[in-house]
Amino acid sequence: EPFVADEYIERLAWRTPGGGSRGGEAFDPKRLLEEFVNHIQELQVMDEKIQRKVEKLEQQCQKEAKEFAKKVQELQKSNQVAFQHFQELDEHISYVATKVCHLGDQLEGVNTPRQRAVEAQKLMKYFNEFLDGELKSDVFTNSEKIKEAADIIQKLHLIAQELPFDSLMDFCSSPHSSAGKYHDLECQLIQEFTSAQRRGEISRMREVAAVLLHFKGYSHCVDVYIKQCQEGAFLRNDVFEDAAILCQRVNKQVGEVFSNPETVLAKLIQNIFEVKLQSYVKDQLEEHRKSDAEQYLKNLYDLYTRTTNLSSKLMEFNLGTDKQTFLSKLIKSIFISYLENYIEVEIGYLKTRSAMILQRYYDSKNHQKRSIGTGGIQDLKERIRQRTNLPLGPSIDTHGETFLSQEVVVNLLQETKHAFERCHRLSDPSDLPKNAFRIFSMLVEFLCTEHIDYALETGLAGIPSSDSRSANLYFLDVVHQANTIFHLFDKQFNDHLMPLISSSPKLSECLQKKKDIIEQMEVKLDMGIDTLNCMIGQMKHILAAEQKKTDFKPEDENNVLIQYTNACVKVCGYVRKQVEKIRHSMDGKNVDTVLMELGVRFHRLIYEHLQQYSYSCMGGMLAICDVAEYRKCAKDFKIPLVLQLFDTLHALCNLLVVAPDNLKQVCSGEQLANLDKNILHSFVQLRADYRSARLARHFS
To answer: What keywords appear on the UniProt entry (predicted)?
Structure first.
């Protein structure tokens, strides 16, 4: 614990008799002083002892430090001596090693010619045995020494090739010539390799393959290995999966057997492609090539895809330097005869299939397609400009049929989608944009021209005239379905065609073709705006049939119980249905454009209709109620101009009931101030009391 002087003195005083007040004992300062003096002396003595002990320890430490330093110096000197000895020993060892290497080189220089001479002597001995016709050496008679015999025969065969022609003929005519033995031994080695492969002895296969490497029959050994590898490998129906498993298994084994595994594996793959796969592909395609184009194209796409997938798996193996080119050539050799005319088969099938889908649909409707409305876009635009009553020949009764089918469209788009997928996979990269454009042209012909365009023409021809009493405006249903179908067409254009042509000159050609199709359809849809005339005609019929002169000039002014006339109710109900139908049939800005046109014509009809009657005071109130209801109906259009027109019309109707004294004030109001005075006058003239001098005077 840390030393605290105050506490130490307190304890000392507490222990001293008379130093405190314990037990009533009196305090004795002298005794306490004496105790303090004695204790101080004891502390001084203790301090001197400790100081002497410290000095003694310091002297001892200095002495030991000097001895340690002296010892370290001696060790350093010993280390320097040892290092010098080590350097001398290292130099001596290097000198001896140099001498030994030199001596080894000299011995090798002497021993190598000696060994060659011994080997040459042995070869001469074996050569003599062949010349004598008797093979006595154990190496030729012992079947276990086939490896040594093979090495000797290989060397003798090379020597025999260098003999002069006469000597060579004499040698070959001997009963046991090296050439015959060479062939026999080669056959034995191949047989031994075959047996080892069947037994699964990898080490023996490796030994025999190493011996055969210098023989001419080495390639035959590889062929035998490839043949036996495939025995029992193709037992399932999926030849591609079997091929992948076989190559995976052989890839692990071939490196343990052959010194050139990449060459052997490449030869195996080439054999699989040229024999197994080519035969399988031919069987699958030739069966349907002339009889069933659809199945032929499906099989071709499937087989080509599976072959390229197999090629991708084989890319993982070591097949040499340019394995990509190697595998591509193998695939091309299998499919070249089928890919050359692929696009012709594709277009022919697509044309036949699309025509069949359309014909089957029209047959289900008991409809015979007819030629309706020929002419280009300019002709259509001219008909729009002139606003004629659809000069498309006699009106056609479609019985509510739009002649557009979602099922037909989906089938056509699905067939085209599959065609684009096959085109992407099977076309040469240089021909891909051109082939994709041809498929797109087929889609335009059958979907846009033969189906959508025909339905629009038929729908236009079926629009009733403006004075017809028919209320069946099926053309809006045609517009709605055509709009939906074209969205699907546009989606396929972006999703499946664009990736195939995006970086080629065909892109602008496709976009222009699509633009022309859109423009042609929009022109025909614009022609359908004449359905608004039919709507207005229907409203006229309702007003003519339901509106009575007594509605606005009742016989009993005090007994009018209705809020608005029956004609107003029916017209508003009809208009609301047509507005809802237009919104359902169109989208985007087309909705606002058509509704604005309909709203303006609707306003003109009501305006002209109201001017056909004379209004009493109560009749004018009823007319105001009718216009108020028409204005509510106009709000459904959500077109500011249409609502403004009906607001003004409502304000004009107020002139039918306002007191004569207030006519000028009402006419100068905000809504009527900008109107022509003749218009205001025409409405005031409709009042039953207009003939009164007072009213005429006030308005003038």
So the answer is: Coiled coil, Exocytosis, Transport
C-alpha–C-alpha distance, residues 353 and 443, integer Å: 11
CATH class of the domain defined by 552-698? mainly alpha
Residue pair 225/208 in contact by the 8 Å Cβ criterion: no
Phi-psi region of 376 (alpha: psi -120 to 50; beta: other; left: phi over 0): beta
Task: Record the pTM.
Answer: 0.62
Q: What φ, ψ does residue 615 adopt, rounded to 5°?
A: -120, 125
> Which of helix, strand or coil describes residue 483?
helix
Q: How far apart are alpha carbons 453 and 489 in whole angstroms?
A: 13
Radius of gyration in angstroms for the set of CA atoms belonging to the chain, rounded to a whole number: 57
In this predicted structure, the answer to whether residue 202 has a pLDDT above a threshold of 90 is no
Rounded to 5 degrees, what are φ and ψ at 687? Answer: -70, 140
CA distances from 163 to 125, 160, 167, 465, 640 (A): 17, 5, 6, 112, 113
Enumerate residues 6+ apart whose C-beta is below 8 A from 392: 372, 373, 457, 460, 461
Per-residue pLDDT of 369-420, as tens digits, reads 776 554 444 454 444 444 444 444 444 555 567 788 889 999 999 999 999 9
**Alpha-carbon dihedral of residues 80, 85, 91, 94, nearest 10 degrees?**
-120
User: What are the Cα distances from residue 685, in Å, to 616, 653, 679, 695?
Assistant: 12, 12, 10, 10
Q: What is the dihedral of CA 625, 627, 631, 632, to 10 degrees?
A: 30
Q: 10-42 pLDDT, tens per residue?
A: 888 888 777 665 545 577 788 888 888 998 999
Q: Are 272 and 266 in contact (CB under 8 A)?
A: no
- Check: CB of residue 353 under 8 Å from CB of residue 294: yes
pLDDT tens digits along 289-335: 888 899 999 999 999 999 999 999 888 887 777 788 889 999 999 99
How far is 514 from 526, CA to CA, in rounded Å?
A: 18
CA–CA gap between residue 237 and residue 364 (Å, rounded): 41
| SS3 at position 674 | coil
CA 635 to chain centre: 47
Cβ–Cβ < 8 Å for 620, 695: no
